[in-house]
Structure formats: C-alpha cells, structure tokens
Write a structure and sequence with these properties.
heterodimer; A: 217 residues; alpha+beta; ten-stranded antiparallel beta sheet; 23% helix; 39% strand; B: 167 residues; 29% strand; globular; transcription regulation (chain A)
C-alpha cells in the first residue's frame, strides 16, 4: 500500500524546489533516470485484463529492474475526506530478463516513459520519498537516448510513502503535513486532480534562490 | 489461449535464498530471479493460476567438500510420492567447467554404490544447457532453479508415462 500526491512545477523553479527540499529533508538528493514500461495483458490472457509496470533504473552502473503493480485507490466517504491517495502497491526487484518473461507470458507494451530528475528519500515520522522529474516519451521503441519531454517546461513532483492498512492514517497525516511546507512553490493533490501551478511560485522561488533557502517561506 | 503463449511455467522458492523467488519457462529458456513479493503481484494479475504445488523435503548431508540434499517429492496436499531428488553441491568451486570432472566422479561412485544395493528405480541426471538460459559458467541460484525445473518436468513426464501404461 502507498500514499501518493502529485503536483507540477515549472522547470525554471526546480532549482529553488531542490534548495527547499534539501533543507526540509536533510539528506542528499539522488539522481533519477527511470525507464518505465507499462504492460497490459493481451487478448485471451486471464479472466480479467491486467496491467503492470516494469521499471529499469538507468542511473545505476548496472541497470536494475523492478516489477510494480498498483491497485485501485481506496474508495468511500473516508477516502474522499483525505487529500492523499491511498492505494495498494506491490513491488519486486527482478533480474534483467523480466521484461522478456512477461512478453512471453502474453503481456504487451502499452506505453513507455523515461523519467529524469532527482529524488529525496527521508524519514519524517514515516518513510517519505519526493521525486521531481521530467516525463519524457521515446520516438522509437526503447530509445531512451532520444527521449523528448511530454510537457516541455514543466516537471512532475510526486510525494509517496509506503503504508499498511494499520498505519495509513498516520502516513497520510505525515505526508499532508510535509506538503504544507511546499505550498508556496507548488500544490500537491491526488493524482488525477489537476491544480496547475501556484501563483506564488515565482516569488517563492526567487526568495529561495536569493539566499539559498535561508528565508522562511 | 493463443498458441504462442506458454500454457504453464514454474515458480519456486529455494531454502538458501529465503527472500527470493524464481520463475522458469523451459519452453523459452527463461529463468527470472525476483523478490518473494512477486508472488503477490502474480496473484493480483490473475493471468496465471497455480495448478500443482510440489514440495521437495528431506535431509542435508555434508560429505567432505560435498553437500548433499536427498528428499522426497510430494504434492503440497498429499503424501503421494512423486519421486526422490538428490542435489549434489561441490562447495569449493563455483565454475561449472572446473568442477565437472569431480562431480562426474562423485556421481559414478554414487551410482556404483546404489547398484550394489538392488534398490528399485534409478537416478537420472539431465544437465540443462545453462547458456541457453543466458547463465554463465559461474554457478548461481538461478542455475539451481533451472535444474529443479528440469527435474519437475522429468517427474511430470514419468508420471504421465506410468499413467499411460496403466490405461
């Protein structure tokens, strides 16, 4: 299970966001270059359609592979009350031929993306990860060296935190609290609920850049 | 199901790798090593379902530099004996080629000792072509997974042969 919120930020303000995150998280950023392949079940495979993602971390000296399955988000009156998306999620590291394995099983490539940016992994009562990345599409199959931004000038910010059915309310509270610190620069909300850029972003970014984050926003 | 999709594949866990899970697709010479959580993913996908579960259980012995595991193969919810498996590991060397001679000598000695006991049945060893699975000369748990998948295929084939003779 995981808790997720997303937002967008103009590329020109990413450096300021990085300064802010550095101060808030207290850890070093990690570079991010993830080739993400979305696979969907082909016809006649299984009783119900299924979907999974294969992630290839290209930032490592030896690319590492992860299989990821995301389930439907939590629903109901309780879920609508909270500003964070809670959904089942399972990940597994796998050896490099995992993509070929799922192709042979009958899965087809639906689309692929390349996410390039950075991430902060830190503890704030709970484990939280903030990723800031440009989402890029490939013009040719698997051509990660020839990827182009889907939205030039804009980057995606994701805040995620692993959770269980026993502690998700605590995780939701921690994520919500953390996101409040980012409010002058960007607004984070449930995936699928678009809020656009915040009007204070430019001023907040300028303030952060002028004194390297010493100013309290 | 489309003819090019495999009807089945094998998933297994090995005692020496408690946090790992292995898939083997013999028809396509694929072996995948993953975390145990991949089983949850496969359950959620519902594209393939577990049909038969076999357990290999027995004892482990140390004979000098050799480690032996001998055990019975039974379905998970039954005591019907499907076969007996013996796993021989030569601990000092991880190279398949460099250990080949000593492994063959050990098997010859073992087969000779067995032949003097007049026991029913006989051990069959079919070494997979590991390079077809993309595996190197350096022995790993993925090699073990491929070998057990081959053993399972042999057990299934022999059970089907016996069933055909009876019918």
């Amino acid at each position: 299970m995981e808790c997720v919120v997303q937002g967008i930020i103009e590329t020109q303000h990413v450096e300021a966001l990085e300064i802010l995150l550095q101060g808030l998280c207290g850890v070093q950023k990690e570079r991010l270059r993830i080739h993400e392949l979305c696979l969907k079940s082909g016809p006649n495979l299984g009783a119900v359609p299924s979907e999974l993602r294969i992630l290839c971390d290209l930032e490592q000296p030896e690319p590492s592979w992860t299989v990821r399955h995301v389930g439907g988000s939590m629903r109901g009156a309780g879920a609508e009350q909270i500003s964070v998306l809670v959904r089942p999620m399972v990940e597994s590291k796998a050896s490099k031929n995992v993509l070929r394995f799922f192709y042979v099983l009958g899965y087809k490539l639906d689309h692929e993306l390349l996410r390039v940016g950075f991430a902060f992994h830190f503890q704030r009562g709970v484990q939280i990860t903030v990723t800031v990345s440009s989402v890029n599409k490939m013009l040719k199959l698997h051509a990660t060296d020839e990827a182009l931004p889907v939205t030039p000038g804009m980057q995606l910010v994701e805040v995620t935190a692993p959770a269980t059915s026993e502690n998700y309310t605590e995780v939701v509270a921690a994520v919500t609290s953390f996101c409040e610190h980012l409010a002058p620069l960007l607004h984070l909300s449930k995936p699928g609920i678009s809020t656009g850029v915040v009007p204070t972003a430019a001023a907040a970014a300028a303030s952060l850049m002028s004194d390297g984050g010493g100013t309290t926003l | 199901m489309s003819p090019e999709m495999p009807r089945d594949f094998i998933g297994m866990s090995l005692p020496e790798q408690p946090n790992k899970y292995y898939f083997t697709l013999r028809s396509h010479r694929i072996v995948v090593e993953s975390d145990v959580s991949v089983q949850n993913i496969m359950e959620k996908l519902q594209s393939y379902k577990s049909r038969v579960a076999l357990i290999f259980e027995g004892f482990q012995y140390q004979l000098g530099d050799f480690q032996l595991r001998v055990g019975k193969v039974v379905p998970s919810h039954s005591e019907n004996l499907r076969g007996i498996v013996m796993e021989v590991e030569y601990l000092p060397i991880s190279s398949l080629e460099k250990s080949r001679q000593i492994m063959e000598e050990f098997i010859d000695i073992w087969q000779e000792a067995l032949s003097k006991r007049s026991l029913p049945g006989h051990f069959i060893h079919v070494e997979p072509n590991f390079s077809e699975y993309g595996l190197s000369d350096h022995y790993t748990s993925q090699h073990t997974a491929v070998q057990y998948a081959t053993v399972m295929a042999q057990l299934i084939a022999s059970a089907q042969a016996v069933s055909t003779v009876r019918n």
